[in-house]
Amino acid sequence: MPQPEDHITTIANADRFILFPIRYPQIWEMYKKAVASFWLPEEIPLQNDVHQWQHSLSQDERTFISRLLAFLATSDGIVAENIIQRFSSEIEIAEIRYFYGFQTAVENIHAETYSILIETLVPDDTERTKLFRAITDVPTVAAKASWALKWISDPDSPLPIRLFAFALVEGLFFSSSFAAIFWLKSRGKMPGLCYSNDLISRDEGLHTDFACMLVNLLDEKLTGSAVYRMVKEAVKIECAFSPLTGYIDSLHTDLVSMNKSMMQDYIRYVADRIITAVGFPKLYNAINPFPFMDMISLPSRTNFFEKRSSEYRLPGPTTTTSKSSLQMYATIVTIPTNTDH
After folding, report:
1. Which domain of life is it from (predicted)?
2. Considering the domain 25-329 in this protein, what is its CATH number?
């Protein structure tokens, strides 16, 4: 009987259609965590968001939120396309394929949720179309999409490079948007949007953890030069995109609890966490500037009878797991680092 393995020597597998016995228990555990975290867009209540959007948010705040949703509405489709076109077709390990199959469904749920938010909040057809087309029409959004898409079409880069690229896509390119929405939550704004952000950022944290895990398990290793080069590229693109740029400029002021400089520090902080998750020293030594992001790893105190808690897990063997992958965006990375580099 095959024994459990703690590293991946090859992604080819003649027994790829046979699941049991599990050969990679740590990968299977990640899959079960993903399944236990399943949710649906219909669970997101938006009545209060619509009221706030129409009656209490300023035009600048509406523009700010629209800018966030413009990128988020299409980004999950890019991640799903990479899984379908590249990773699922070239990796023959059953446990990994199970995770990627489920992740594809989850990315679809994220995309549907963001699309529902835009359809619900933005009544003007022309404005909605502009938001949905931001991936091609808004330069800073297009730059993020272009960087992600190039790794899908790249015929030469080895698998560890492309895995790390999409760890950056899901862990770094979402970071400023997630932080901005958590900032809205700390101010009591847009509860439905913020609840969806709780769920989606948890999912994306798990996906980032999974990518880093695979990088660490593969016998073929990343080089420090490749890691730092890719991180610098991604950080530059994300700092240019930062949703606060247009918002702060329109207000002609800086906010005390969040401003452009702080957001750029936060982006570098998240980049350092991803770098250390694949076993390399930090590049920026940045400090988390947002105290409210430290709170997201704490159990939420939602009223069970008012709405389902974002800490909800489907019943199963992983239900007792207490640490959320939201911590990728706070202060703790759940993937153990490999210091043998």
Report:
1. Eukaryota
2. 1.10.620.20
Each residue's pLDDT tens digit, 128-153? 888 888 888 888 888 888 898 889 88
Domain residue spans of the chain: 25-329
Note whether 111 and 73 are within 8 A (CB).
Answer: yes
Structure confidence by residue, pLDDT tens digits, 207-257: 999 999 999 998 889 999 999 999 999 999 999 886 554 444 443 334 556
114 is catalytic: yes
Sign of CA dihedral 201, 203, 205, 211: negative
DSSP state string for 157-217: S-HHHHHHHHHHHHHTTTHHHHHHHHHHHHTT--HHHHHHHHHHHHHHHHHHHHHHHHHHH
Q: At a CB cut-off of 8 Å and minimum separation 6, what does 8 contact?
A: 24, 93, 214, 217, 218, 219
Overall size of the chain counted in residues:
341
